[in-house]
Specification:
The chain contains four helices and 15 strands. The protein is an alpha+beta fold. It folds into two domains: about 100 residues, Beta-Lactamase; about 100 residues, LytTr DNA-binding domain (OB fold (Dihydrolipoamide Acetyltransferase, E2P)). The chain has a five-stranded antiparallel sheet, with helices on one face. It has a five-stranded antiparallel sheet with strand order 10-9-8-12-11. The mean pLDDT is about 85. It holds the Pfam family LytTR.
């Protein structure tokens, strides 16, 4: 793994990961980095990723995963959260390992999103939302051909919505249940999604590998 990627991950760890949490990085079927940060984690770089474990699930699906972890060599247990990343053009996974006492209570995905249209506030079932857009520092979501303004940011919604919603661009989240077609964009050579309501959503190069992995193409 290039030093530049390691430096970025180290910066990420300092800013986001709790001090008493370790993190590991996996790619190409094995672990390539471990920062124990004071914990005793029985993993070493070069250790293979075991089929079925959290790193394997992230690498296979390209999606965030969570699970309780225990190691036969220890009495301690950890709460693992895995995030998909791209490392030297290969799918990778960052696994954050938190001692059980640091784990926060997992919340269920939201079922309704309340949006504003004219002077009314309208609760909308997330199962009806085709896509969500960020534009001009505002967030808009679309359902049944209508447009609604939301007080939440895309980043907040990405964490709160169920797994059918996928980030495909810095400005778009899409409900994969409403994807009708995916084709190459003649102007950008990237991908373009057409939803069931006829909307066209661009897919950035950063998020294209995850979309391909999730939808299997």
């Amino acid at each position: 793994m290039k030093n530049g990627v390691l430096e970025q991950l180290a910066q990420f760890a300092c800013e986001w990961i709790p001090e008493k949490a370790a993190f590991a990085v996996a790619a190409d079927g094995h672990y390539i980095h471990l920062d124990e940060r004071g914990l005793d984690i029985p993993l070493v770089p070069g250790h293979p990723v075991i089929p079925g474990d959290i790193a394997h699930r992230v690498l296979e699906t390209g999606r965030r995963a969570e699970e309780r972890l225990s190691f036969p060599e220890q009495d301690s247990s950890y709460y693992g959260i895995g995030y998909p990343v791209e490392i030297d053009s290969l799918p990778g996974a960052v696994i954050v390992l938190l001692p059980e006492e640091l784990k926060t209570e997992k919340t269920e995905p939201i079922r309704y999103l309340t949006g504003r249209t004219d002077e009314d506030w309208v609760p909308v079932s997330v199962s009806r939302i085709t896509h969500i857009e960020s534009a001009d520092k505002k967030t808009w979501f679309y359902a049944d051909g209508e447009e609604f303004a939301s007080a939440r940011t895309l980043k907040q919604l990405e964490a709160e919505l169920p797994g059918s919603f996928l980030r495909v661009h810095r400005s778009y989240l899409i409900n994969t249940d409403f994807i009708s077609r995916i084709r190459k964009d003649d102007f950008t050579s990237g991908l373009l999604i057409t939803t069931s309501d006829g909307s066209e959503i661009p897919v950035s190069q950063t998020h294209a590998p995850t979309l391909r992995k999730v939808l299997g193409f």
